[in-house]
Amino acid sequence: MHLDIALVAAGALVGLLVGLTGTGGGALMTPMLVLLFGVAPTTAIASDLVASVLMRPVGALVHWRRHRVDQRVVALLCAGSVPAAFAGTYVLHRFGTAAAEVAPQRLLGAALVIGGGAMMARHLLTGRAGPARPIRGATAATVLTGVVGGFLVGLTSVGAGSLMMMALMLLYPSMASDRLVGTDLAQSVPLALGASIGALVFGHVSLSITAAVTIGAVPATLAGSLISSRRASAVARPLITAMVVMSGLKYLGLTTMPLAVALIPVGALVAASFTARRIRTTRASAVASTLDHSTGLRP
Question: Per the count of CB atoms within 10 A, which of 32, 73, 85, 105 is most buried?
Fold first, then answer.
């Protein structure tokens, strides 16, 4: 079996970003396989799903050992996502190959654009870190999130990170960032397993692609998770968000020139969302520091 070094490097890049942020697995790897390596969309989606079965447990275990996982939320998400993911792979299989490749490609593009928007919205809505106090009706909404996200993962390999993390931010607005990353990585393990079983059953997987991606992704995911479990990193998030949205627009049919023009507002929106979060965090820290000094307390 030929091992493509470029695919190994691509897997390492995506694995590092997944470990750091909990997002970007399917949203980055699948477009890279299709746009840069010329892999058919259905094969890219299925191969990425199988590779994630080996990649994500590494990051999830690091967060689990450091108690950065909300086990109840993971169970609720998986109750909906695992069967829905298998159903998504079946629908992907029904699309077929050859001329019908356009259908999953368009669906993938829509999922990427929605996911990118979800990432930006998440940073606009992020509040102070603290215990996970859910909103009313969060239990049922969490299971429903698992169903929708799982189906998208099975169909496009996108959704486990960006879309589900956005839903978790809305349902559990005070969940700390490191706990959010750990919870998302943990729920993605059984989700990816359910989706990959479907992918293997319906026969779209390329073992050579999966092997190359896994070899690069596993150690890189471990490294990223060790960093994010100690301190939630936001350095890679703006880059991930921009890449997700631009890849989605490309899948939706934008040619080179419109894509270049779209980069301007996309970049501006990404910068605005992350700048807003930085300003809000700085102000909150300043207020807390003022209160501490006024009451005679010390950090």
Answer: 85
Count the Cβ atoms, other than its own, within 10 Å of residue 136: 6
In a domain, 296, yes or no: no
Flag whether 180 is in a domain.
yes
One DSSP character per residue, 139-174 reads: HHHHHHHHHHHHHHHHHHS-STTHHHHHHHHHHSTT
Q: Domain count of the chain?
A: 1
Q: Is the dihedral of CA 136, 140, 143, 148 positive or negative?
A: negative
By residue range, what is the domain housing residue 41?
A: 5-290
Question: pLDDT tens across 66-79, in order?
Answer: 888 889 999 999 99
